[in-house]
From TrEMBL:
Compartment annotation: Membrane
Protein name as catalogued: Sodium/proton antiporter NapA (CPA2 family)
Tagged with keyword Transcription regulation: no
UniProt xrefs under InterPro entries: Cation/H_exchanger_TM (IPR006153), Na+/solute_symporter_sf (IPR038770)
Pfam families (UniProt xref): Na_H_Exchanger
Keywords, ordered alphabetically: Antiport, Ion transport, Membrane, Sodium, Sodium transport, Transmembrane, Transmembrane helix, Transport
One GO biological process term: sodium ion transport
Top-level division of the source organism's lineage: Bacteria
TM annotation in the entry: 12-30, 64-83, 95-116, 168-192, 199-220, 240-270, 282-300, 306-328
Length: 415
């Protein structure tokens, strides 16, 4: 009896430990290949899913463990996005960046929606695809700029500002979409009055939650971080911040929002904390352990039989993902950035990774009527393709720009 009852736990620990080791190996190998590690993480999950078809190892207990780790990885990802943002700097840059951001979100969202409709998806799945394609990926877009030493240039700062706004607005749009999905999918028809009423209630709730987060960041966070610096040593002080961030994320989920928006707002609340807290080694280790499991979970949810059927939908969504961001970013960037930098700025917005897959994953919790397996597979293909190819293209474009006296290493003249 003891041996039999211990077997599921042993398999669970073995798979989690093996996945962790593979994630570390993927991080090193993909760094040498200059590819985002998340591509490898998704492939790890897909490998486990395919392995399960040969040897059934993913019983409910094991899947439950991976689901829990994926949820914690989601919180870690969005908390870090918020923690790395600078709301005050964003507000100061808003007049210039907001034109590009708003146009980019509208164009890429519409491109994603109509591409999904053309691929044969119904209204709600198409809305999910449209919202998912509004976001970009800071983690994929910025490393080529950092490697080129151009992130501090005016163009590099513009890319950072627009990417951060894309991610924040993507999470907010996701919260609104998730709130109205039950209304959109209820009954045989869509009651647009109910949708508008639900949307208005969600906006008011989100505004109240935002006000509460602002009050915490304005009056409670500064004395809290001072007390942590005075009375706690690393790693305890960062662990307290992470614990509070997890509680805020859970509160957002209980209020009807997702863990994702709670984790993002929690990170924003602590974004002004001193760097000694941000760069605490304990948090880096915790993040490195948990974050891969979100993407491993994406791979685990892929239906192998649906991947072939997702090729057509994935191709259409990939075209929409590229054209939506390139056109949506390049046109307004033509007005506020040097013309020689417009293409590299627009191309930097193409990658879809963390936020896009968070939106698909969270919407997928409502069932296959909201996110069919072909849409899930197609969006995963978009993430893999844009993340694998775009950094190399941006790197080459930046190399051309460095040879140009008006390139990103020089101050932008603006127009």
């Amino acid at each position: 009896m003891v041996e039999a009852s211990a077997t599921p736990d042993s398999v669970m620990v073995m798979l989690v430990g093996g996945a962790t080791l593979l994630a570390i190996l993927v991080r090193h190998v993909f760094a040498r290949l200059r590819l985002p590690a998340l591509v490898g993480y998704i492939l790890i999950g897909l490998g486990l899913r395919l392995g399960h078809d040969v040897i059934p190892i993913l019983d409910p207990a094991v899947r439950g463990a991976f689901d829990l780790l994926a949820a914690l990885g989601l919180v870690a990802l969005l908390f870090r996005v918020g923690l790395g943002s600078n709301p005050q700097r964003l507000l100061s840059k808003l007049p210039g960046a907001s034109v590009i951001w708003l146009f980019s979100v509208i164009v890429s969202g519409l491109a994603g929606y109509y591409a999904a409709r053309w691929a044969g998806f119904d209204l709600v799945p198409s809305l999910v695809a449209g919202v998912a394609l509004t976001a970009t990926s800071i983690g994929v877009a910025l490393p080529p700029w950092q490697a080129a030493g151009a992130l501090g240039s005016e163009q590099g700062s513009l890319v950072l500002d627009v990417a951060e706004l894309d991610d924040i607005s993507g999470v907010v749009l996701m919260a609104l979409l998730l709130g109205i999905i039950p209304t959109l999918t209820a009954g045989s028809g869509i009651a647009w009055t109910g949708v508008l009423t639900t949307s208005a209630g969600l906006v008011m709730s989100l505004a109240a939650f935002t006000a509460g987060c602002y009050a915490f960041a304005r009056w409670l966070e500064p004395p809290l971080t001072r007390a942590l610096l005075q009375h706690e040593r690393a790693p305890a002080r960062m662990m307290i911040v992470v614990a509070m961030g997890s509680l805020i994320a859970a509160l957002a989920g209980m209020l009807g929002f997702s863990l994702a928006i709670g984790a993002l707002f929690a990170g924003l609340m602590f974004s002004k904390a001193p760097r000694r807290i941000h760069r605490d080694r304990a948090y880096i280790v915790l993040y490195d352990f948990l974050s891969p499991f979100f993407f491993i979970g994406i791979g685990l949810k892929l239906e192998p039989a649906a991947l072939t059927g997702a090729l057509g939908a994935g191709g259409l969504l990939l075209v929409a993902a590229v054209l939506g961001k390139v056109i949506g970013t390049a046109l307004p960037a033509w007005l506020v950035a040097p013309r020689g930098s417009v293409l590299v700025i627009a191309t930097s917005m193409v990658p879809r990774a963390e936020i896009s897959m968070v939106i698909i994953d969270q919407a997928g919790r409502y069932g296959t009527d909201v996110v069919p397996p072909t849409l899930y597979g197609g969006m995963t293909m978009v993430a893999l393709a844009t993340c694998a190819v775009t950094p190399g293209i941006v790197e080459r474009l930046l190399a051309v720009e460095r040879a140009d006296p008006g390139g990103p290493d020089q101050p932008a003249s603006g127009r």
